């Protein structure tokens, strides 16, 4: 084996290990739930309140405690910023819902926070409009559900990142550190071989 090939081998091995570690650490973070359906739909104009407001994810939601901790579903009247929802939540597989409430005419945001199967919170907002001057009531009475307190999320703005660093960021930082350590080890080995 030539000196050049022998010097490059530790560098290539360290880079491969670093890349594999970065991918292995970052891959679970890419598996967050995404919202694929909602009632009302994004941008929808409705004439009356639905029986329930809901968001549905692409996979079952993770309510490990059975208390709805980490979950929120708010119906916010945009002109005043008031949350008009009941605060009662139901988690059923991939769907998070709250009972319908009377709504006045105007723009609303359906603000949500769910916990994906990997334990990472996912949040956002879905705009919709009520196009009637009369207050409306739900079209049917939902079944009673156990109360679940929505989490306190700072100023209540949906779409905000949860507290703490994103696991994907940490994956890239750790992976990058491993790659840099491997490159440094390879350079040191190369310099030592050239001197020896």
Describe the structure.
- The structure is a single chain.
- The protein folds into 2 domains: 3-27 and 169-195; 32-163, Immunoglobulin-like.
- Helices cover 27% and strands 25% of the residues.
- The chain has helices at 3-26, 167-195; strands at 35-39, 45-46, 52-57, 72-77, 82-83, 90-92, 95-99, 106-115, 121-130.
- The strands form 2 sheets. It has a 5-stranded mixed beta sheet, with no helix packed on it. Strands 1-3-7-6 form a 4-stranded antiparallel beta sheet, with no helix packed on it.
- The longest helix is centred in the last third of the chain and has 29 residues, at 167-195.
- It starts with a helix and ends with a helix.
- The relative contact order is 0.24.
Tell me the layout of helices and strands.
Elements: H1 3-26, E1 35-39, E2 45-46, E3 52-57, E4 72-77, E5 82-83, E6 90-92, E7 95-99, E8 106-115, E9 121-130, H2 167-195
Parallel strand pairs: 2-9
Antiparallel strand pairs: 1-3, 3-7, 4-5, 4-8, 6-7, 8-9
């Amino acid at each position: 084996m030539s000196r050049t090939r022998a010097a490059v081998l530790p560098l290539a091995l360290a880079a491969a290990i670093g890349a594999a570690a970065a991918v292995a650490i970052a891959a679970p973070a890419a598996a967050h739930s995404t919202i694929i359906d909602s009632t009302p739909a994004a941008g929808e104009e409705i004439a009356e309140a639905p029986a329930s407001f809901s968001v549905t994810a692409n996979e079952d939601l993770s309510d490990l405690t059975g208390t709805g901790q980490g979950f929120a579903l708010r119906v916010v009247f945009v002109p005043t910023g008031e949350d008009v929802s009941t605060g009662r939540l139901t988690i059923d597989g991939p769907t998070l819902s709250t009972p319908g409430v009377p709504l006045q005419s105007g723009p609303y945001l359906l603000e949500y926070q769910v916990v994906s199967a990997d334990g990472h919170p996912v949040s956002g907002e879905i705009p919709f409009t009520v196009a009637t001057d009369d207050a409306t009531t739900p079209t049917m009475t939902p079944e009673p559900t156990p109360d679940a307190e929505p989490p306190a999320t700072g100023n209540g703005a949906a779409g905000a990142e949860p507290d703490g660093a994103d696991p994907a960021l940490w994956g890239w930082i750790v992976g990058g550190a491993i790659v840099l350590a491997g490159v440094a080890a390879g350079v040191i080995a190369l310099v030592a071989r050239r001197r020896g």
